[in-house]
Amino acid sequence: MAEPGLPHRFVPTSTSWTNARCGWVLGFAQENATTQTALLHTVNGGLTWRRRAAPEVTVTPFSGHVRVHAANEEDVLVTNGETVLATHDAAESWHRVELADTRPQILVGAVDSGSSTAYAVITSGPDEDRRTRLFSSPVSETRWEPVPGLEIPGPSGGSVVVSEEAAFVTLGGGEAAGRYWITEDGRHWQEKAPPCSEVHMAPRLALPPGDSAAVFAVCGYQADQPPGHTYKDLKCSVNGAPFETLGRAPAPGTTRGLAVPTPFSALLSSVGGGFGFLFRSTDAGDSWETALRREPPSLLDLDFQDPVRGVVVHGSGTGEHGVVLRTVDGGASWQELPLE
How far apart are CA 26 and CA 45, in angstroms? Predict the structure, then answer.
């Protein structure tokens, strides 16, 4: 159930919004000389916040980011990268999610959801039998199982994005070559040519809000770049066609997030050299500007709710420091979102 009052010395670690008005912010607060998880909820775009019951969750060195993902106003997930907790009654109660057919060490990667299905990229198993798979569950239930055939061997990265019933997933970034699948209904999957097929090339996907016709990807790789710099190739697939390269974002940092407010604009968060960068293009990746350059170096949960309104967390993801930043002009400027 909801708790009275807003938390004292609240430090955000993650944010998730179901639309421009309804959002959740997870973090840690100082309560009676102890650090506790705290969860805030707004239904008016952040004008006011209400404290909701938060599950007990700790920071793990294996992942380093305590995250929240809201499928809707009833069904919400929280993960520290090793365990997943779920609510199906708007944070009135929480329970631990059992991930079928997994063995330690478990790493929870990308999470997203549509109107009826939630997805998560999960790496699990001992070193000699480690694999990375896509898991799914009905949004309103806790029945997580691996999606047959959607896996690659070894520890890898991955990205999954969903719009209504359509879903797109890419796995890669480890020793295995990247793979990519799409579904229109959440039941029948097709494998397509991946946006990033080479080994050690970390993929990230993004969709414009409410539009699944064009899927965007960024492929990050170091090659001959100096330390703290990477190539970041922005690509796009339209109506299931092969990905085509649109442009290349600036080299500083390693990619941490991708958002596409419209089919012609893209924002990419990057971390490197002691700074967090937010690069922005308004001409489909042809040219880029630096919309943000912040230190300490961390920009997390980059996401847009519509073509002009978006959020990102400037923080450690662990409760050491953090603020939620918001834009109302498509990412050209960002301001701190008051949590009071």
Answer: 16
pTM of the model: 0.95
pLDDT at 135: 98
Q: How far apart are CA 4 and CA 161, in angstroms?
A: 35
Q: Cα(26)–Cα(87) distance, rounded to whole angstroms?
A: 14
In this predicted structure, what is the pLDDT of residue 2? 45
Could you tell me the CATH superfamily of domain 62-294?
Answer: YVTN repeat-like/Quinoprotein amine dehydrogenase (2.130.10.10)
Residues of the chain short of pLDDT 50, as ranges, are 1-3
Q: In DSSP terms, which residues pair with 238 in a beta bridge? A: 214
Tokens of residue 157, six digits: 């990265």
Give the span between the Cα atoms of 108 and 96, in whole angstroms.
Answer: 14
Specify whether the CB–CB gap between 152 and 179 falls below 8 A: yes
Distance of CA 197 to the CA centre of its chain: 21
Question: What count of other Cβ atoms lies within 10 Å of the Cβ of residue 18?
Answer: 17
Q: What is the C-alpha to C-alpha distance for residues 282 and 288, in angstroms, rounded to an integer? A: 8
Contact 263, 225 (CB under 8 A): no
Closest by CA to 268, choosing from 209, 251, 84, 211, is 251
Q: Are strands 76-79 and 275-281 parallel, antiparallel or unpaired?
A: unpaired
Q: How many CA atoms lie within 13 A of 167 on its CB side?
A: 29
The residues of the chain that CATH labels 2.130.10.10 are 62-294
Reading the block at residue 65, the tokens are 């980011």
Distance in angstroms (rounded) separating the CA atoms of residues 214 and 208: 8
Cα–Cα separations (whole angstroms), residue 238 to 14, 46, 157, 213, 234? 31, 34, 23, 6, 14
Residue written as tokens 């066609």? 241
Question: Which of 86, 56, 91 is CA-nearest to residue 73?
Answer: 91
Distance between CA atoms of residues 194 and 214, nearest Å = 14
